[in-house]
Recover the amino acids of this structure.
């Protein structure tokens, strides 16, 4: 669970296929309780949080970097995450729900006609109804992942 200081990181974790909830609030007692109840880790930039905020401080990952790519590298290293191309873009970037394969016939009002005729695979979010397909944006994201997130 990422706090309000790490919205872009949570979005990129979703792009990478990881379950990453985002809170528009800073970490507080309620957010900590939610994270515990949902068995989530907490991502924050709040350096004062570690001291006495939780009995189990291993649940908190305090991000030090300012740049998104470096922040992502910190999370990946901290949790020893692996990057699998098969997992990329399997979660909704808006609401974090796992995407499902959707037949084009069900998308005629949601997707431009040109896209329906030129793409074969569509994924949609069962929660917020956002539709995704593998166009140039998808390929650009894959390239950016390969170029910037390789852990050395």
């Amino acid at each position: 669970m990422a706090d309000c200081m790490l919205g872009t990181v949570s979005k990129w974790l979703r792009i990478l296929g990881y379950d990453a909830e985002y809170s528009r609030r800073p970490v507080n007692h309620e957010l900590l309780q939610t994270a515990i109840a949902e068995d989530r880790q907490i991502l924050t930039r709040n350096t004062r949080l570690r001291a006495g905020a939780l009995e189990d401080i291993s649940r908190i990952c305090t991000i030090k970097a300012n740049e998104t790519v470096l922040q992502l590298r910190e999370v990946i290293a901290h949790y020893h995450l692996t990057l699998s191309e098969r997992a990329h873009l399997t979660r909704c970037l808006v609401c974090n729900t796992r995407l499902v394969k959707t037949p084009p016939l069900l998308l005629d009002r949601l997707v431009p006609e040109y896209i329906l005729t030129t793409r074969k695979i569509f994924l949609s979010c069962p929660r917020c109804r956002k539709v995704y397909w593998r166009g140039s944006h998808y390929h650009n994201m894959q390239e950016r992942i390969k170029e910037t997130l390789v852990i050395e």
Remarks:
- The mean pLDDT is 89.
- Strands lie at 42-44, 60-62, 100-101, 122-124, 131-133.
